[in-house]
Amino acid sequence: xxxxxxxxxxxxxxxxxxxxxxxxxxxxxxxxxxxxxxxxxxxxxxxxxxxxxxxxxxxxxxxxxxxxxxxxxxxxxxxxxxxxxxxxxxxxxxxxxxxxxxxxxxxxxxxxxxxxxxxxxxxxxxxxxxxxxxxxxxxxxxxxxxxxxx
Length: 150
Hints:
- The chain is α+β, with helices and mostly antiparallel strands.
- The chain has 2 domains: about 45 residues, no CATH class; about 90 residues, Alpha-Beta Plaits (2-Layer Sandwich).
- It is about 25% helix and about 40% strand.
- It contains 3 helices and 8 strands.
- Strand 5 and strand 6 form a beta hairpin.
- The longest helix has 13 residues.
- It starts with 7 loop residues before the first strand and ends with a strand.
- The N terminus is likely disordered.
- Pfam families: Acylphosphatase.
- Belongs to the acylphosphatase family.
- This is Acylphosphatase.
- One of its GO terms (molecular function) is acylphosphatase activity.
């Protein structure tokens, strides 16, 4: 690795020396395009347990938010944030003083929304806790929009 400043090169069976196709700096993976690199990248991802399409996986998750979440426009802000992230689902107040609903969309966007529900919420809300249940992968979305249920 002389002169590489810590780069780790992955061996390509077609090129006995270091492969210019894939190198790793810490946790970041950099790809240099060259013919035939895709099968080697796919093998690398399989061996490391990573997935090329993980961010594209659609998921559905139910949620319930506890705290001062009624009378503070929590549902309206939740709907707006969900739409901003491109999610679908619904949100409603409960008789228990909580807000509940369901999120559906790409897993990375759902994770962002879960963090928003757990830590941010509407400006005047105070979130004590958030429960997320029944998470599952789905093949298609069950909703076409993000609705406030009355």
